[in-house]
Design a protein that fits this description.
The protein has 306 residues and is of the alpha+beta class. 26% of the residues lie in helices and 25% in strands. It contains eight helices and 17 strands. It has helices spanning 13-21, 47-55, 67-75, 92-95, 118-124, 160-183, 215-224, 290-297, and strands spanning 2-7, 25-31, 35-37, 42-44, 59-61, 80-84, 102-106, 130-136, 146-152, 231-235, 238-242, 246-248, 259-262, 265-268, 274-277, 279-281, 288-289. Strands 5-2-1-6-7-8-9 form a seven-stranded mixed sheet, with helices on both faces. Strands 10-11-16-17 form a four-stranded antiparallel sheet. It has a four-stranded antiparallel sheet with strand order 12-15-14-13, covered by helices on one side.
């Protein structure tokens, strides 16, 4: 089948590779424009752009799908479009270009967590299972009928970044199977059923830990926002970045936000029991073990995080 592929971040690369391996012809690749990366803000191609160039595939970089971009997509004459985290809205004129439509790999079990950050919200809300769905894209927000799903049971310490990397690989296989099933005429999508939930794009404020909340909720949030936008708290008015902490139900009685030593471990109080800080990153410094940071900071006993 002649496939237009649309995607931008590293999580989309396995899907593009898998479609090539499955024998589909990638007639063109749509991705976001080069973006500044690192402290020096060097303009850098997206991971999908870099991989497409390595494969010698035709490439269109567009921050939004304009009439001009749609004309280019139509000129490639795709039978279907596969889209994985492109990062932009596909307008009706572009949706109509391929005869078999746009097939989206989305990292949730639809209709749960429609939106930009589905896996992150799954972790934050403590879902027993996470997963991915392939569905036919339409004008509504992730409302289209579903072709297939896969389910993954997350580990108790898994971050959204770790789960996303795992689902990017298994989801690539799901997408390839979906495209092949459509090509063979044996796969039809089914309407979504159930009450939808929504996962809007996370902001920096979503990573702030409110220590009055229960430890389990804070543990989930920290894992859900790792690696982006990242968990953090305030120390003396400055932002202190945090790796996901550990649950310490054995330590009770530490007031919310208060730091304390527990043997060689640094713990902080919450609305229930304590959490153990694992790694921290003070402003302007690298991530380091929390115990090393605490020893270097002097007497942290009783210090309050905010």
């Amino acid at each position: 089948m002649r496939i237009l592929f649309a995607g931008t971040p590293q999580v989309a690369v396995p899907s593009m590779d898998r479609l090539v391996e499955a024998g589909h012809e990638i007639v063109g690749v749509l991705t976001r424009p080069d973006a500044p990366v690192g402290r020096r803000r060097v303009l850098t191609p997206s991971p999908v752009a870099a991989r497409a160039e390595a494969l010698g595939l035709p490439l269109l970089k567009a921050s939004r799908v304009t009439d001009e971009a749609t004309a280019q997509l139509a000129a490639w004459n795709p039978d279907a479009a596969a889209i994985v985290a492109y990062g932009g809205i596909i307008p009706p004129a572009a949706l109509a270009v391929p005869a078999h439509g746009w097939i989206n790999l989305h990292f949730s079990l639809l209709p749960a967590w429609r939106g930009a950050a589905p896996l992150q919200y799954s972790v934050i809300h403590g879902d027993d299972v996470v997963g991915a769905s392939t569905f036919r894209l339409e004008e509504g927000l992730d409302t289209g009928p579903v072709y297939g799903t896969l389910v993954l049971t997350p580990g108790p310490e898994a971050t959204s970044g770790e789960l996303l990397a795992e689902l990017a690989e298994s989801g690539a296989e799901l997408l390839a199977q979906t495209i092949s099933g459509i090509d063979a005429g044996r796969l039809e999508p089914r309407p979504q059923t159930g009450e939808p939930t929504y996962a809007p794009k996370l902001t920096l404020d979503d990573g702030r830990l409110e220590w009055s909340l229960p430890a389990v909720a804070l543990h989930r949030r920290a894992r859900g926002v790792t690696p982006e936008p990242g968990a953090w708290t305030l120390l003396d008015g400055a932002r202190l970045k945090l790796a996901p902490p550990r649950l310490r139900p054995d330590i009770q009685g530490v007031p919310p936000g208060r730091l304390a030593w527990a043997g060689r471990a640094v713990v902080v109080g919450t609305g229930t029991h304590a959490l153990e800080l694992t790694r921290v990153q003070p402003s302007g410094k690298k991530m380091m073990p929390a115990s090393d940071w605490a020893r270097g900071a002097g007497d942290i006993e009783g210090t309050v995080l905010g």
